[in-house]
Model the fold of this input.
Amino acid sequence: MRIVPRRRGSPIDKVVSELMIQVNSAWGRDLAESGVAGIYRVQDGGKVRMSTVPAGHQGLGVASYAWASSPLRRYVDLVNQRQLISLVRGEAPPYRAADEQLLAAMRDFEFAHEAYGEFQRQMERYWCLRWLIQEGRSLASATVLRENLVRFDELPLVLRVPSLPALDPGTRVELEIGDIDLLELTLRCEFTRSLSALERTNS
Done:
């Protein structure tokens, strides 16, 4: 078995993402304007959370956003689709705004979603480390996010580098890699040089 990079950011990926944002924001708006209860995805001050009260999502730039496009993958979508179907049919919705079942569904989903997210992060980290071993990498380039936090340029891997000097966010750096542990999902990274400074010198 050989690990190869997954193509990301293709035009069709962007089209699908934009359409999902459009439909979820439109259906969220329909629920909010009709007064039918729903579970919303809101973002205020950078923090994303679930809420039964409609509010804006700053990151997406929409006034209301309710996951409803993937009922086979997320339970919240199924709840919101049930509410939308009742709205279209002119029937009483299964859940009211202060319904304990609705609040319990939201809480249970948040717990499961966080657990799934943590598993996804650990799984991605494992395969990133496996790729570094496969490629025999002792050096890698990364971009400074803030302070000593960097993101690898070739991998969806974010980590702290204690030896990183004070550099501006966006600075590209070279790191020396060693001591990869697939059980603990750790690796040692040491700052070697600033690639941004080298690129400016060569230009």
Observations:
- Strands lie at 40-44, 47-51, 139-146, 149-152, 158-160, 172-181, 186-194.
